[in-house]
UniProtKB/TrEMBL annotation:
Annotated ranges, domain CBS: 19-70, 86-136
Pfam families in the cross-refs: CBS
Name of the encoding gene: cbpB
Alphabetic keyword roster: CBS domain
InterPro entries from the UniProt entry: CBS_CbpB (IPR048125), CBS_dom (IPR000644), CBS_dom_sf (IPR046342), Diverse_CBS-Domain (IPR051257)
UniProt name for this protein: Cyclic-di-AMP-binding protein CbpB
Keyword hit for Plastid: no
Amino acid sequence: MISLHSKQFLETNIKGFIIPSEKVAHVQIGNSLEHALLVLTKSGYSAIPVLDTKYKFNGLISSSMITDSILGLERIEFELLEGKKVEEVMVTNIPRISIDAKFEEIIELLVDYPFLCVIKEDGYFEGIMTRRIALKQLNRHIHRLNHFL
Ligand code: 4BW
């Protein structure tokens, strides 16, 4: 009985649980690092997605990637922020998931990544699946299982 319920949970589609693109703080590839740092600081998130002008997903950028890129020998060279672009600093080698993904796949990935970007086949950005949402659902599932014990 318990294993049947766990299987059902792991096979649940993530569709109803993602944060949709319009609610996700993001920057665009052509933006300056100064703008990106402003968005990161104002939103309060440590890393956010990078999109192109057509809202296709390109990568991720974080505050630490930005500071690292302007780190001089003796000081942080803040004057470089305006001239550098997001695309020079962002990372692209990160997992992407589809809207058809199931909890089984994403829980494994969320061990290493705080959030996963949900991308359509044509590259358009659909939203993110966060560690918080996944843990919340897992917690609900564990508490439901307790009723069977
Ligand atoms: O502004 C915030 N609002 C709320 N409600 N929670 C926040 C906020 N900032 C941080 N948190 C909490 C969340 O629980 O701290 C965790 C770590 O944040 P992070 O990574 O290091 O900025 C948050 O965990 P989470 O909800 O599982 O989110 C995991 C990561 O997903 C965040 C951030 O990089 C990204 N993220 C989440 N919501 C986002 C977002 N990026 C852009 N736009 C969003 N709406």
